[in-house]
Amino acid sequence: MKILVSADMEGATGVTWPADVLPGTPQWERCRSMFTSDVNAAALGFFDGGADEVLVNEAHWTMRNLLLEQLDERVRMITGRHKSLSMVEGIQHGDVDAVAFVGYHTGAGAEGVLAHTYLANSITGVWLDGVRASEGLLNAHVAAEYGVPVVLVTGDDLTCEDAGLYAPDARKVAVKDHVSRYAAVCRTPARTAADIRAAAAGATSIAVRHAPVTGGPRTVELEFDAAHLAAAATVVPGVAPSGERRVAYTSGTMYEGIRTFKAVTTIVSAAVEEQYG
After folding, report:
1. What is the pTM assigned to this prediction?
2. Contact between 6 and 88 (Cβ < 8 Å)
3. How, if at all, do strands 240-243 and 218-224 pair?
4. Strand ranges (DSSP E) for 42-159?
5. I need a surface site. Which of 32, 233, 249, 275 has the fewest CB within 10 A?
6. How far is 133 from 220, CA to CA, in rounded Å?
7. Mean per-residue pLDDT, 153-162
8. What is the DSSP string of 158-216?
9. DSSP letter at 92?
10. In contact, 156 and 176? CB cutoff 8 Å
């Protein structure tokens, strides 16, 4: 049994505001240990449940945040950027039985601690086939094309609710309760590590590959906080205006869809000016 852990940071234990997840800040240095604790707890739980292999894919910002030296020696980790499938890199090789979303968060325009979709700001909403989409929902649909179920989701309480839409059978662990976008009622690392480990151990019972989901095409629509960002996004082939500050594109598969999404967000990031966005 091989489990992939897609590890994001905004939904980690103790994280509540931008400095907690911004590489190079003192708060980021502090929160890296709590983030690593969450990921290690998930890995330990999967091993407890009988997994043979746990592969962790760093999915936050520079994708160089986890402390490798604090992970269980059986874990392997993909670290660094520029990966074919970004947040779910490693799922495409046909040997992963299940995926866990650790440290995830709600999507742009929704309530939730540090809610966003790929870009911290700029994007105010994303929809997949008309359904508001978080990173979890987008990545779950990519995983489904490879026959890989989502078996564990951790984050704030609203992230766990969101996961009910795309992974109803997955075990969910709320490491904090949403108060505002920048505040939460947090549980201690000792408590969350125990909860995540127990949930991961239980999740191995549903870590079973299924038939790949095929059923494209898929349409993704994005809304931005400024008109020039929508215009910039249309540089990507196939991306066209769909409304005020909105663009949309249609892909034959979610594999293509998520890669186009990454291209759009990269172009849009480059078009953001420091003071005016």
Report:
1. 0.98
2. yes
3. unpaired
4. 53-58, 76-78, 98-102, 123-128, 131-132, 150-156
5. 275
6. 9
7. 99
8. HHHHHHHHH-TTSEEEEEEEEEETTEEEEPPHHHHHHHHHHHHHHHGGG----PPP---
9. G
10. yes
